[in-house]
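anyone seen this seq b4? input:
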Amino acid sequence: MNIAIKLYPQTIWGEKYAGDFDVLLTEIAAAGIDTIIAPVVQGSRLIFPEKNSNADAQWNMLHLQSKCKEYNLAFIPEFPLFHDPDTFKNVEQYRPMNINGEYFTPTDWYHPICPSNTQYLQYRLGLLFQTIERFDPPIISLDFLQFPYLPGNAAFQAEQNILPEFCFCDFCKAKFQEFSGQMEPEKYPDYWFQFRQETITYIPVLIAEEIERQGRQVKLMAQIPAVTAPGSAENLQQVTGVNIEQWNNLVDIISPHIYTHQLSGENEWGHIFLSETQEITTAHIIPELDVPFYAVEPEENLQVGELIENLQESGFAALSLFHWELLCENDILLDFLAEQNN
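predicted toks r here
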């Protein structure tokens, strides 16, 4: 089984590694990792020099991509589509809004932007297209391809035909009226859900068209946030606007987040989530598991180890782990992965 690891700039250039790619990649390769998935944009900032720019940025993920080849590690750039702390902070009217006209209150880390905002979408896709052109990757991973949703937060839980908490901004209302001819989404929940799904599905269409225009062979990988299962497909549609069936022939790889530790979930939930996803997609599936935090009980590592073994037995060819800064301090899981490779 191939194993990918999420790797973040704060880890690469943080105190432990201080930008020493050789030390970092030696440790990652020794752990039996085959692939690195790393964001190449944070907020609205590119973590690589723009084309025709003479500036050699201190943080340059192009250098990491090049170094990965020396260590026989695949490199998948990650692009966080609708998670943008910079724009969230600086442009208040771009923040998601609830039906009462109240702006989204940010968590410590989650700062979403509404996908219905055409001007922002065009800006964001422009950055994505630059990313594809500069990295020319075999695969690009799209994160936050969804309406605002935070797993584990009670405000975002799905209920049958109950409108989601976010978003009801002016962009959403105008697009909904154009889509349905109606002005009051609360009276037409089915139309509201359909409008949101069409909005999200249109985005990989635009990306696929640009990849073809550039003449590149880039596969699209879409990360899927964790939702309640059974009923995960409908829950995704209602709370995120993601309709996986509509993505067939558009998205090549789907990566469901099986975050059992962050969400205090059981492996059974993860298996149901994956099984329901397999039933409705023609794409390859690469589950993403979360690594327990530093100080955990041994049985928590046992849980993720069992899940990895179950996925391997079920025929999954690859999985992703979130993330290296946690894994590199987890001797139990590192030993487990080493045993898997022997």
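Residues 189-214 form the longest helix (26 residues). The radius of gyration is 20 Å. kinda curious what u guys think
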